[in-house]
Amino acid sequence: MSRFETAFAKGPALVCFITAGDGDTAANLDALVEAGADVIELGMPFTDPMADGPAIQEANLRSLAKGTRTADIFRMAREFRARHPETPLVLMGYANSMVARGTEWFGDECAKAGVDGVICVDIPPEEDAELGPALRAAGVSLIRLATPTTDAARLPAVLEGSSGFLYYVSVAGITGTQQAAQASIEEMVGKLKAASSIPVAVGFGVRTPEQAAAIAAVADGVVVGSALVDLVKQHGDDAPGPLRELTAALAQAVHAARRV
Amino acid sequence: MTAQPLPNSLRSLPDENGHFGQFGGRYVAETLMPLILDLEKEYRRAQDDPAFWAEFDDLMKDFVGRPSPLYHAPRMTEHFRGLAPAGKGPKIYFKREELNHTGAHKINNCIGQILLAMRMGKTKIIAETGAGQHGVATATVAARFGLPCTIFMGATDVERQKPNVFRMKLLGAEVVPVTSGAMTLKDAMNDALRHWVANVHDTFYIIGTAAGPHPYPELVRDFQSIIGKETREQIMEKEGRLPDMLVAAVGGGSNAIGLFHPFLDDPDVAMTGIEAAGHGIETGKHAASLAGGKPGILHGNKTYLLQDEDGQITEAHSISAGLDYPGLGPEHSWLYESGRVNYVPITDDQALEAFQLCCSLEGIIPALESAHALAALPQLTAAMDADKLLVVNVSGRGDKDIFTVAEALGVEL
């Protein structure tokens, strides 16, 4: 079984996002895993994060201002993999940081660092040739995004070549702004799960254990990002404590759905 | 540069997926994809609809004031003949886009796009702007068609382009100062995209140049091609033959592609695109994506970009706010690699000199963007025989730039 399969086999999973190079990344990642995060998304900072709201935009700029390079991100990933052999690790970011040295290079580096999957915000299925083949050749999952605007006609294209899990972006908008109505999440997750056998995780605008519990009741995973990134902003190098606290509460809420 | 097979016609691109060779494409978030596909479908229908083009032509004539003149610039011609070796120095024509309503070529594209927005039933308009020219043109067409309009503009640009901010407000637009990044054009485009992704259901994004995700580079080019089509007719009427050289400045590249495209299949018409070299390519403070960048992906398309080895986008610099962008339209990247168009960098200082020369010799105050194109004339005219014809696109008027120029020349207003 892949790390994704093992993680999602336990029931609804908590997927936690932080930006690489923002704060003490290694300590922050350890806090997330120790507090119950089942899957880690590590954001690759980019100068122009077009799909992100203010929280993650600022995290990108803080990280880049500290001089974070792509090589540093792969080093963080390798070290994470050595410390946490079981937890799936996903790199999330924008196309230009992934294609800059060639996608074969990127796919190989992911594989060598123990990265399980990649989410690229601005490569839709129509441009799959840019990244998908190189990742698949390297044995790295390409995790696609489905959105409220993804209609039945497009869904097969989105699912084709997707693996690991499917990320349902529950809001037509940017990260960390508003949350979708629970009814709309339920309806869309139902459609996605009917069309695909891979797990469906739901994100965008999820901040509290209560929201996470409601989503975990209908989906295979809950993604939390901006709320965690806010804590890194607020607490800087002292973020592991507050991150551990919020993650534990979120994990409890999400994992409670496993007993049902 | 790798040689690549060329299609039978250089005017047949993009392909059905929006690619110009390896460039172009649709690199957008999934949320936007359905809308981009809808826009393409609607544009295909409009392309085949004579009523769409009849309305476009009518507005071009009576609202924009087209056709813009093709003007023989006698004193510039004589000036450069005087500097050139004996027998050299072509006859210089200006394509007078600066005489259009709102003072630049930008309005051509805005008219076309707002007609598409109306066809698609969209009720709100957004746009990004750098110097404010595209913002003013967008606010103008939004007022003309009665649609509410929001313009995203970097906070730095809001501060240094106050007259245009006021113009947009007079025209009824809301101007949103963007405080992310360097607070200039690139950041304005990021925030326009962020707003769009949250409002796709009712909002049409009027992109200001021949860049962005397919079909924008194609449709902006098609609307701007009125420049080249008119030039072709006008030069045939005046000279009975096609020009030997076309010259235009390239920021995103819409005025250049509009002039060039109708001539791409005429092998005897040479073309020069002018990139902004800022303080000089070697200083790193420039906006010359071809001379100083490499292919990458940003703002929905694959094209040449200013970036570092990790693919982080680097800040552009140009005295001309309209050229101050770290990329250019994908078709230019393709024309560059195919060798059909020659691209030349021009520095801030060269542009300033040409700006003043045009004012004093022809009585025309050109935009700083257009001054970059004019600044290539010493080099280009010295190598062309006196019986050749050269057309330079004066894409905008320079009234907006007088404060910048005064500051650069050390004049206090």
Automatic annotation (TrEMBL), chain A:
PROSITE patterns: TRP_SYNTHASE_ALPHA. GO terms for cellular component: cytosol. One of its GO terms (molecular function) is tryptophan synthase activity. Its EC number is 4.2.1.20. SUPFAM superfamilies: Ribulose-phoshate binding barrel (SSF51366). Keywords: Amino-acid biosynthesis, Aromatic amino acid biosynthesis, Lyase, Tryptophan biosynthesis. Pathway: Amino-acid biosynthesis; L-tryptophan biosynthesis; L-tryptophan from chorismate: step 5/5. It catalyses: (1S,2R)-1-C-(indol-3-yl)glycerol 3-phosphate + L-serine = D-glyceraldehyde 3-phosphate + L-tryptophan + H2O. CDD domains: Tryptophan_synthase_alpha. It comes from the Bacteria. The active site is at 41 (proton acceptor), 52 (proton acceptor). PANTHER family: TRYPTOPHAN SYNTHASE ALPHA CHAIN, CHLOROPLASTIC, TRYPTOPHAN SYNTHASE, ALPHA CHAIN. Belongs to the TrpA family. NCBIfam families: trpA (TIGR00262). Tetramer of two alpha and two beta chains. The alpha subunit is responsible for the aldol cleavage of indoleglycerol phosphate to indole and glyceraldehyde 3-phosphate. This is Tryptophan synthase alpha chain. It comes from Novosphingobium colocasiae. The gene is trpA.
UniProtKB/TrEMBL annotation, chain B:
PROSITE patterns: TRP_SYNTHASE_BETA. SUPFAM superfamilies: Tryptophan synthase beta subunit-like PLP-dependent enzymes. Keywords: Amino-acid biosynthesis, Aromatic amino acid biosynthesis, Lyase, Pyridoxal phosphate, Tryptophan biosynthesis. The keyword Lyase applies. Signal peptide: none annotated. Residues 66-396 form the Tryptophan synthase beta chain-like PALP domain. The modification N6-(pyridoxal phosphate)lysine is found at residue 106. GO terms for molecular function: tryptophan synthase activity. Its EC number is 4.2.1.20. Pathway: Amino-acid biosynthesis; L-tryptophan biosynthesis; L-tryptophan from chorismate: step 5/5. Belongs to the TrpB family. Tetramer of two alpha and two beta chains. The beta subunit is responsible for the synthesis of L-tryptophan from indole and L-serine. This is Tryptophan synthase beta chain. The lineage of its organism: Bacteria, Pseudomonadati, Pseudomonadota, Alphaproteobacteria, Sphingomonadales.
